Amino acid sequence: MTTLSNTDTTALQQIGSLKMCFYGAGSMAEAMVRGLLDRGLTEPEQVSMMNRQNVDRLAELSTRYGVHTSAEDEAKAAMLREADIIFLAMKPKDAADAISQVRELFHPGQLIISIIAGMTIKTLETLIGKPMPIVRTMPNTSSTIGLGATGVSFSSSVSADQRALAELMFQSVGLTAVVEEPKLDVVTGLSGSGPAYVYYLMEAMIAAGAELGLTQEAARELTIQTVLGAAHMVKATGENPAELRRKVTSPNGTTQAAIEKLDANNFSGSVISAIARATERAAEMGAEIERKATS
Ligand SMILES: NC(=O)C1=CN([C@@H]2O[C@H](COP(=O)(O)OP(=O)(O)OC[C@H]3O[C@@H](n4cnc5c(N)ncnc54)[C@H](O)[C@@H]3O)[C@@H](O)[C@H]2O)C=CC1
Ligand SMILES: O=C(O)[C@@H]1CCC=N1
């Protein structure tokens, strides 16, 4: 795992001189843009965003962040052509068509960064149809607040400088793990989708607190602090979650009673099979894009 160090400052300043185009302007593109801007890694005038046809969404992004947006085909083409870094940020089902439509605008001086779940570098190379350096990543929405977790892989034509640049960008909005490309599907199942599992747990904890008599607000605040504190404890103490769990669990006490209930419902097995299924689903979505790319 790598996080940003102070020695990376100069490279970070260089990133500020590069034009970034987000092709796809949804939740994850916004998370990245907000994270990069809030951390001062780039300026709004260096960033452009485009989507398929939702002008209200583009206006919202432009007002909120001051970035360039356009729904006009000519302006969109110019944004893509003039970008130093192109982020591919559309849904997997839209990727094959969206990329094929604009591939003539791509040129080898640009760096392509894909955040699309499942889509392999090989499929992307087929869709683009000419040699381009490609960084395949799997970030998560916590990049919005600089606490993202991103898996990264590189095509063989990505230079050492481009690798460093891509890693620094994602490190500036959280931590990165460089993994072998096939493992990115596991990263997708674990940390790409992961925030949703934690939110789901929090939803259930808040509902339980409220059903059992706390005010909604108290249930929410206590849940947030509990999750925050638990994550910080794992990080700050360096202890395993299992060891920390043992310290909470008094023999025959309340925690033991609760964990017995979770075990009776196969909590651990459910989480493992959920992550395995998400991993498998990423591969299925990748195969679907590959089919479209080669048909
Ligand atoms: N939401 C998340 O937590 C994460 C999402 N991802 C990946 O990020 C990608 C985007 O996901 P979200 O932001 O959640 O989706 P979203 O649905 O919020 O945004 C998708 C965007 O792509 C645009 N788009 C679709 N077809 C287009 C076209 N032909 N031309 C231009 N724009 C087009 C849409 O208009 C929209 O702005 C997906 O591939 C997903 O796998 C990766 C990590 C986490
Ligand atoms: O649910 C999805 O397919 C995307 C990929 C990772 C998080 N959201």
Automatic annotation (TrEMBL):
Positions of the Pyrroline-5-carboxylate reductase dimerisation domain: 181-285
Gene Ontology molecular function: pyrroline-5-carboxylate reductase activity
Protein's cellular compartments: Cytoplasm
Pathways involved: Amino-acid biosynthesis; L-proline biosynthesis; L-proline from L-glutamate 5-semialdehyde: step 1/1
Pfam families: F420_oxidored, P5CR_dimer
Keywords: Amino-acid biosynthesis, Cytoplasm, NADP, Oxidoreductase, Proline biosynthesis
EC number: 1.5.1.2
EC category: oxidoreductase
Membrane-spanning residues: none
InterPro entries linked: 6-PGluconate_DH-like_C_sf, NAD(P)-bd_dom_sf, P5C_Rdtase_cat_N, P5CR-like_CS, P5CR_dimer, Pyrroline-COOH_reductase
One GO term (biological process): L-proline biosynthetic process
Function: Catalyzes the reduction of 1-pyrroline-5-carboxylate (PCA) to L-proline.
Family indicated by similarity: Belongs to the pyrroline-5-carboxylate reductase family.
UniProt protein name: Pyrroline-5-carboxylate reductase
Gene name as annotated: proC
